[in-house]
Specification:
316 residues, alpha/beta, Rossmann fold, N-(1-d-carboxylethyl)-l-norvaline Dehydrogenase, domain 2, eight-stranded mixed sheet, 13 helices, 6-PGluconate_DH-like_C_sf, EC 1.1.1.35, transmembrane, L-gulonate 3-dehydrogenase activity
Length: 316
C-alpha cells in the first residue's frame, strides 16, 4: 500500500506517545490531526512537537525542514474534526479500560467506515475494551516502542474478531511510516515487548532484593553487556552465535542451567526437545549453519562500529 491510499491519520491524545506518533506520521508525509480533551494541553503541544523535531534535526535525522513537518500537523478542538477523513485513528489515551471503552464507542460512531481504529495500549487487549461495537472488526492494538520516532518496533495485536484485511492494511500503513510491525498471534496481557521487558525486570528486582547486586550494577550489566549486544542482534541470534554448532548446541549445554534458574523463581518452563527443534529450525532457515562463521564476523564488526560511535559521543 502506498501513501496515496493512506494519507491521513488522527492521533487521539496529546501525551508523549501521541506527540511521538504525530512526528512519525508527519515524517511519512501524512496529514495529521491531533486531538486532546485538555484545552491547555492542546495549546502547549505544538511547541513540544517543534522541540522534538529540532532535536531530531540536530542529529541529522530529518529529511525535511521542521516547518514542513509542522505544516502537516493540525491540533483540532473536537474528536469529530480529528476523525474526519482519517485512514488510521491512533488512540493514545491513558491505560484505563473504562476510558478506552467510551472512546472507542465514540470513534466507531464517527470515524469513516473504512478507518482502522488502533490503540497504543501497553498491556490491555483489544477485547478488554472494544466490547460488541458494530465496527469491532476494524479494531486492534498497535503498541509502539517509546518513542516510536526513535524505536521503530510496533506490536499489532488483533482480537479474534479483528478482520484479516484490517491487520494486513495496518501492517502496510505502519511499514509506510518506517516502523517495523510484528503481529502478535494471540491476545495476552503485555503482548511481546512488555513480557520480555517484564521478565528481565522481575529478575532484576529479585537480584536487588536478595542482595546479589545493586541497582546500578544491574543497569551496568544490561547497558554495557546484554543491551549492547541486543542492539545488534536479538536473544535467539545471540545464543545462536555464541555457541559453535548454533542454538541447538547452546540449548544442550545451557538448557539445564536455565531450567534450574527458572524453577528457583517458581517458573518451571524447560526447553523441551520439540521446542528447541522448532527454534533451531527457525534460526537455520534464516542462517544456514555453513554461514555461521561469516555471521559472527558481521556481529563483531557491528559491535565495533557501535562501540566506536558510543566512545565518540559524550552525553554526560
Amino acid at each position: 500500500m502506498s501513501n496515496k491510499l493512506a494519507t491521513q491519520a488522527a492521533v487521539i491524545g496529546a501525551g508523549s506517545i501521541g506527540v511521538a506518533f504525530a512526528i512519525v506520521f508527519a515524517r511519512a508525509k501524512w496529514i495529521v490531526r491531533m486531538y486532546d480533551p485538555d484545552t491547555e494541553r492542546r495549546e502547549r503541544v505544538p511547541e513540544e512537537i517543534i522541540g522534538r523535531l529540532r532535536e531530531l534535526d540536530n542529529f541529522g535525522l530529518l529529511s525535511e525542514p521542521v516547518d514542513a513537518l509542522m505544516g502537516r500537523i493540525e491540533i483540532v478542538a473536537t474528536l469529530e474534526q480529528a476523525a474526519a477523513g482519517a485512514n488510521l485513528i491512533q488512540e493514545c489515551a491513558p491505560e484505563r479500560v473504562e476510558l478506552k471503552e467510551v472512546l472507542f464507542a465514540e470513534l466507531d460512531a464517527i470515524a469513516p467506515v473504512d478507518a482502522i481504529l488502533a490503540s497504543a495500549s501497553s498491556a490491555l487487549t483489544t477485547s478488554s475494551f472494544v466490547g460488541n461495537l458494530s465496527g469491532q472488526h476494524r479494531c486492534l492494538v498497535a503498541h509502539p516502542g517509546n518513542p516510536p520516532y526513535l524505536i521503530p518496533v510496533i506490536e499489532l495485536v488483533p482480537a479474534p474478531f479483528t478482520s484479516l484485511d484490517v491487520v494486513e492494511r495496518a501492517l502496510s500503513l505502519y511499514q509506510d511510516c518506517g516502523l517495523k510491525p510484528i503481529v502478535v498471534k494471540k491476545e495476552l496481557e503485555g503482548f511481546v515487548f512488555n513480557r520480555l521487558q517484564g521478565a528481565l525486570l522481575r529478575e532484576a528486582y529479585c537480584l536487588v532484593r536478595d542482595g546479589v547486586a545493586t541497582v546500578d550494577e544491574i543497569d551496568t550489566v544490561v547497558r554495557d553487556g546484554l543491551g549492547l549486544r541486543w542492539s545488534v542482534i536479538g536473544p535467539f541470534e545471540t545464543v545462536d552465535l555464541n555457541t559453535r554448532g548454533g542454538i541447538a548446541s547452546h540449548a544442550l549445554k545451557m538448557g539445564p542451567a536455565y531450567e534450574r534458574m527458572g524453577a528457583e523463581r517458581g517458573q518451571h518452563d524447560p526447553w523441551t526437545p520439540a521446542l528447541v527443534e522448532k527454534v533451531a529450525a527457525a534460526r537455520r532457515a534464516v542462517l544456514p549453519i555453513e554461514q555461521w562463521d561469516e555471521r559472527v564476523v558481521w556481529r563483531d564488526q557491528n559491535l565495533m562500529a557501535l562501540i566506536r560511535n558510543r566512545n565518540k559521543a559524550d552525553f554526560g
